[in-house]
Specification:
The protein contains five helices and two strands, in the order αααββαα. With 125 residues, it is mostly helical. It has a domain at 40-123. Strands 1-2 form a two-stranded antiparallel ribbon.
């Protein structure tokens, strides 16, 4: 039997890669279905997250270190329990009806409250 080169693809490796790809695909489909149904909308709103961040970005990798961060709206300084800091503080996220993590509208819609709040911010010196 002929030995394969170290960098040559084996049937076993292809099997494992296929299994992982199938698992990732199935997970993405499941997350998309959950995001579309949005059964956890109340919990998602309590956390000030849009459907994308709540259903797809949960469990992201973060360093375990308290991290100081600045709110993108009020410019206040806050402390977060890890390095995956939000972009908006809870007060600003609630006022703007925006996602604390990515600053998108909390329901991925264009809303007048977001537009008005940003206009008020631009008028301030």
């Amino acid at each position: 039997m002929k030995a394969r080169a170290p960098d040559q693809l084996s049937l076993e490796e292809m099997y494992h890669r296929t299994h992982h790809a199938r698992t990732f695909r199935d997970s993405a489909i499941d997350k998309a279905r959950r995001a579309e149904a949005d059964a956890e909308r109340g919990k998602r709103h309590e956390q000030h997250l849009c459907p994308w961040c709540y259903y797809f970005m949960r469990g992201r990798i973060a360093g375990q270190a308290f991290t100081e961060w600045t709110c993108a709206h009020c410019r206040g300084t806050f402390m977060h329990h890890n390095t995956a800091t939000p972009r908006l503080c809870p007060a600003c996220a609630a006022t703007l009806e925006a996602c604390a993590d990515c600053c998108a509208d909390i329901d991925l819609r264009d809303r007048r409250t977001l537009t008005k709040a940003l206009r008020r911010r631009k008028k301030k010196p």
